[in-house]
Amino acid sequence: MIVGKWLNKQSSVSIETSSIEHKTETSSIEHDTSSIEELVKQAKVNIEMRNELISQYTPFMIKVTSKVCKQYIDRSRDEFSIAMEAFNEAIETYDADQGSHFLSFAEMVIRRRVIDYIRKETRQTRDIFLEQESKDDEEQVESLAQINASISQYHKELERERRREEIQEYQLLLKKFDITFSELVECCPKHIDARENAKQIAKTLASKPELANYLMEKKQLPLKQLLKFVQCSRKTVERNRKYIIAMALIYIGQFESLRVYIEPEQIQHRKEG
C-alpha cells in the first residue's frame, strides 16, 4: 500500500501548512484576486498588461523568493531576476482549466525555478573549490567535506520543500474533483495487481490528449472513450474511478516528486512476478 502509506504520512503536512502565505504581505496587491485569472488571460496577448501585472506583483515575487532562500531578497539579487522570469513563464503557461488559481501556480513555478538556480549555483561553488584544492592540504580536504555535507543537506531541505508544495497543489487539484486524501486512502485498491492495473489505466488516460483534456474540463472520467484503449471491464474502471482519476492527475500534472511514490511499486511488482 505504497500510495496509502504516503498519503497517511503526507496529508498531515499539507493540512498543517497554512494558506496565510498569500495573505501576510500581499494584501495591497491582491485587492481583486477574483479577477487575476482574467488579467492573466489578457496579459498573454497584451505586453503592456503583462508588464503592468509583473510590476504589480513584484512584492509577491519578493515574498516567495525570500521564503525559498530563507532570507530577504531584494530587487538587486539574481534570485529576484529568476523569480521575475518565472512569473512571466507562469503567465505564458497558466491554464485555468487545470484547476488551480494563478497565484498558486505562479508560486509553484517561482519556487521551482529559484530552487533550480540555487542547485546550479551550489554545484558551481563546489566545482570551483575542487579546482583550487591542494592535495597536500588536509584543512582544505576537511573543508571540502564540510561543504559537500552542507550542500547535500541543503538539497534535501529543498527537496522536502518542493515535495510539500506539490502535495499542497495536488490536494487543491483533487478538491476540484471532489476527492480528499482520506477518501483516496479508502478507495486505494488493496491488492498490488489491482493497484497496478488502475495505474496503467491512469497512465493510458494521461497519455491520450483527448482523454486528458476531457478529464480536466469535465472533471469526470471519459469512460466510453477510455474503454477503447484499456483491456478491462467498465465495472472495474467505475469501481476504481476516484483512484484512477487521482493517479491520472499526477501523470498529467507537473508532480515530479509525487511520481516517485507511485512508480517504484511497478518495479517491485515485476520482480515479484
Explain what this protein looks like in three dimensions:
By secondary structure, this protein is an all-alpha fold. It folds into two domains: 20-176, no CATH class; 189-272, no CATH class. Helix content is 73%, strand content 0%. It has 15 helices and no strands. The chain has helices spanning 2-16, 36-43, 47-56, 58-69, 78-93, 102-132, 138-176, 181-187, 192-207, 209-218, 223-226, 234-239, 241-252, 256-259, 264-272. Helix 4 (58-69) crosses helix 6 (102-132) and helix 5 (78-93) packs across helix 6. The longest helix has 39 residues, at 138-176. The chain is globular and about 60 Å long.
Show the helix and strand layout:
Blueprint: H1 2-16, H2 36-43, H3 47-56, H4 58-69, H5 78-93, H6 102-132, H7 138-176, H8 181-187, H9 192-207, H10 209-218, H11 223-226, H12 234-239, H13 241-252, H14 256-259, H15 264-272
Helix pairs in contact: 1-7, 1-8, 2-3, 4-5, 4-6, 5-6, 6-7, 9-13
